[in-house]
Amino acid sequence: MTLAAELSITDLKPGFGARIQGIDLPTASDAAIDDVVATFHRHGAIVLRDQKMTPDDLMRFIGRFGDPEDHTQTRFTLPGYPKIFILSNRIVEGQPIGAHNDGVGWHTDYSYKPEPVMLTMLYAVEVPEEGSDTLLADGCAAWNALPADKQAMLEGLSLHHSYKHFMATRAFGDKQTLSPEMEAANPDVEHPLIRTHPADGRKALWPSTGTVTEVIGMPGPAGLALLDELVEFMTQEQFVYRHKWKAGDLLMWDNRCTLHTGTLYDDTKYFRTMHRLWVKGDKPY
Predict the structure, then answer these.
(1) In a 3-state reduction of DSSP, which class is residue 213?
(2) pLDDT-based confidence at 43, cuts 50/70/90?
(3) Separation between Cα atoms, residue 170 and residue 273, nearest integer Å
(4) What pLDDT, on the 0 to 100 scale, is given for residue 172?
(5) Which superfamily does CATH assign the domain made up of 8-103+110-129+245-256+264-279 to?
(6) Which of 126, 134, 204, 209 is close enough to 139 for a disulfide, judged by CB 3.0 to 4.6 Å?
(7) 16 close to 139: Cβ distance less than 8 angstroms
């Protein structure tokens, strides 16, 4: 595929991700943005730095990837922009303006839905001078590194995901007991442990933490121990890209083939404000 002449693409780490330079997203043509979209689907994650994005710019850009997804929790959506969710520790007039410490712990977004989100986009409005890194783990590289006999054993397994369980037990953020309406809107689901990427058929190890209550095909403690083992394997340094934030950064990752986690920072010393957007996905297979 031929990319726009002005785009420069380098790996985020060998074999994973793409750092894209040479494009100003608010003024870029649809054709140039489509090149960015195509790069995303092949690389698992993309980074574009020094972008000055208004909410309208964010909505235009995310729309080139697909239909923006709604957020399960709507309290911290940006006024006038229900598809843009605010992550922040700022307090204004005695009230938080965003969710704080959301997304800490290795996971994939919306794994508790029948059709998890395809991608997650974070746009950095303000960032701490230290801490708050975002880590991405490459599920394709982890899968390819497993011996053939382990691959054969894993391919028949599925995971039972529960939003109710996640909200009741999460380690960071406020634990919640779901209302009957929220529980009915988020029933438990099952997804394969090994996921096939629809863009090119590549396979990815696709475990998660927080939402999983059982490994289908290996129930009980043995299954959950296997899940912990796989998450530990996939999140080794050799498979992980660490993003150190600067204001104006735009990071997007492919939830079909990665795990991610946020990290903590000194929230008594620094402020952090991010805008998060999602794109609708399809049923994992």
Answers:
(1) strand
(2) very high
(3) 22
(4) 67
(5) Clavaminate synthase-like (3.60.130.10)
(6) 204
(7) no
